[in-house]
Amino acid sequence: MASDRFGRKKPFLVAIVIQVIMGISAAYIPDFWAFTFVRFLIGVSVGGTMVIGFVLVMEYVGIEYRDVVSALYQAPFNLGHMLLPVYGYFLRDFSDFQLGISIPTIVLLSFFILLPESPRWLIAVKETDRAIGILEKVAKVNKRSVDIRKEVATYQETSQKNQTRKGNILDLFRTPNLRKNILCMAFNWLSCSYCFYGVSQYVGQLSGNVFINVASSASVTLLGSLASIPLMRILGRKTIVILFNFICALCLIILCLVPEGISSVVFACIGVVSSFIVFVVVYLYCTELFPTVVRNAALGFSSMMARVGSMIAPFVIELRDVALWLPPFAFAVLPLLGALITFLLPETKGCELMTTIEEGEKFGKKVENTLKNTQNK
């Protein structure tokens, strides 16, 4: 929400500073509750860096490459997940482990020098000259001969019909269409996070080597990120979310029935990769579904709901003590509901990013009205 009001760059840099300082500090804190509080602050900061970073990238990328870049944005997350069992294997002490995973984040401090503000946000809040300056530098680096000032003026003329103002999270709930979209999207985020983190942890408790199990589930998520690129080129965002939510739910229901062993790890990994493909797509889907002035608020609210899902997940795993089939069954329920709820959302593939609240409220309604008029004729 801060990055919708104060720009993408400043809150992003604040989140980076918190992440670096708290990550390294956590390695030297001997008290459990103090350590837990510092880890909480790390979680807050990572929520900021991942969400704001994604929006910033998407606001620089055109329609043609948006699906590819959104999927590749997740690849470093997958590589980090794959490295966790490696760090865990060689750094058995929690202090060494925490320090080992925190030191690489120091490189993010270079963004103080390297990172520009989002021109799309600057235009949305009428800081046109700054936006033009940044876009002229981008055009020079990309060796593109474009009249930036003319292009920006044309873009502003098309969006001037609706008065642009700074938005906040309440704007997502004031009007019926935006309210429906944010509630459906937030539930999907909750569902895929609940499933992804829950089943990833569940895999570690299945029979076999814990390091190999976790590395296996992490590796397939990288394949999922790469597979989502052609999928997003061929299919719509809505179709992918529905399809892979159903696949995830099906694999988890099958997991209830098979005995623990290689087959259970295989079905769990398919469930993990299916939920991660949904994760990759809902990042992009949410970005395209909401206008610039509330885009970060929408992603932030959805991401917050995702963390609710990941907080619930460990307690679901504990249901193993009641019955072995209960955790996968409980994990299967939400993606199944998520698939059904997604039918209420409009498709966003090939659409320009919206700027104003008014555009966001109208989006999807035009398609519905056109279909109704066609049916009446």
UniProtKB/TrEMBL annotation:
Spans traversing the lipid bilayer: 12-30, 36-58, 70-91, 97-115, 182-204, 210-232, 239-258, 264-285, 297-317, 323-345
Pfam families per record: Sugar_tr
All residue ranges annotated as the Major facilitator superfamily (MFS) profile domain in the record: 1-350
Domain of life assignment: Eukaryota
Membrane topology summary: Multi-pass membrane protein
Protein known as: Major facilitator superfamily (MFS) profile domain-containing protein
Lineage: Eukaryota, Metazoa, Ecdysozoa, Arthropoda, Hexapoda
Keyword tRNA-binding assigned: no
InterPro entries: MFS_dom (IPR020846), MFS_sugar_transport-like (IPR005828), MFS_trans_sf (IPR036259), Sugar_transporter_CS (IPR005829)
Keywords assigned by UniProt, alphabetized: Membrane, Transmembrane, Transmembrane helix
Any Gene Ontology CC annotation: membrane
Keyword Transmembrane helix attached: yes
Alphabetized GO MF terms: transmembrane transporter activity
Localization per record: Membrane
PANTHER family linked to this entry: SOLUTE CARRIER FAMILY 22 MEMBER
